[in-house]
Amino acid sequence: MIRPGGEADRGAVNWPLANEPFLVYEREGRILGHVVFHDVFDNEYELLYIEVDAAARRQGIARALISALPAGRIFLEVRESNTAARELYKRAGFVETGRRKLYYRDPPEDGIVMELKKW
Ligand SMILES: CC(C)(COP(=O)(O)OP(=O)(O)OC[C@H]1O[C@@H](n2cnc3c(N)ncnc32)[C@H](O)[C@@H]1OP(=O)(O)O)[C@@H](O)C(=O)NCCC(=O)NCCS
């Protein structure tokens, strides 16, 4: 089941949440995945972070979480070396639209900018 994350779910989120909305994927009372996003403005969102428990990967949970995001234009940046995430985003319909030179630190790495038009 995918549902909006609430106050009680914040501990399951591996992201320094301020007040961003997030969705959780729950199975038999356990949260197995989450996606955090930012409502930029009308129908435009930034996907800030998505993670699925290591033991529950390759079951379509991340794709399901992306499908459950609101409709609109969704942007994200991903580390160039994060093959799993880049494949996931491609499979979910995101296209690469740019590159941010040395966007990440520790270790320094380019960020790939991707966009999905989700209607
Ligand atoms: C990236 C991540 C969220 C994917 O979660 P997931 O639930 O395993 O992904 P899904 O099962 O929905 O995968 C959908 C598709 O993405 C691609 N994919 C997912 N993981 C992959 C991997 N390790 N290698 C290659 N392709 C992969 C595949 O095309 C997959 O479809 P398939 O299983 O039918 O081949 C997960 O690996 C994760 O939590 N990684 C650590 C956190 C992270 O890097 N988050 C991204 C930050 S930008």
**Global shape:** globular
Class inferred from helices and paired strands: mainly beta
Mean pLDDT: 97
The parts where pLDDT drops under 50 for at least 5 residues are none
CATH superfamily: Gcn5-related N-acetyltransferase (GNAT)
H/E element string? EEEEHEHEE
Strand adjacency order, main sheet: 1-2-3-4-5-7-6
Number of strands: 7
Chain-wise SSE layout:
Layout: E1 2-4, E2 22-27, E3 30-41, E4 44-52, H1 61-67, E5 72-79, H2 83-91, E6 95-104, E7 109-118
Parallel strand pairs: 4-5
Antiparallel strand pairs: 1-2, 2-3, 3-4, 5-7, 6-7
Bound molecules: coenzyme A.
The site of coenzyme A has 19 residues, from strand 4, helix 1 and helix 2.
Written overview of the protein:
The chain is 13% helix and 49% strand. It has a seven-stranded mixed sheet, with helices on one face. Helix 1 links the parallel strand 4 and strand 5. It has two helices and seven strands. The radius of gyration is 14 Å and the shape is globular. It is mainly beta and 119 residues long. The chain has a single domain, classed as 3-Layer(aba) Sandwich (Aminopeptidase), CATH 3.40.630.30. Bound molecules: coenzyme A. Residues 49-52, 57-63, 78, 82-85, 87-88, 91 line the site of coenzyme A. The site of coenzyme A has 19 residues, from strand 4, helix 1 and helix 2.
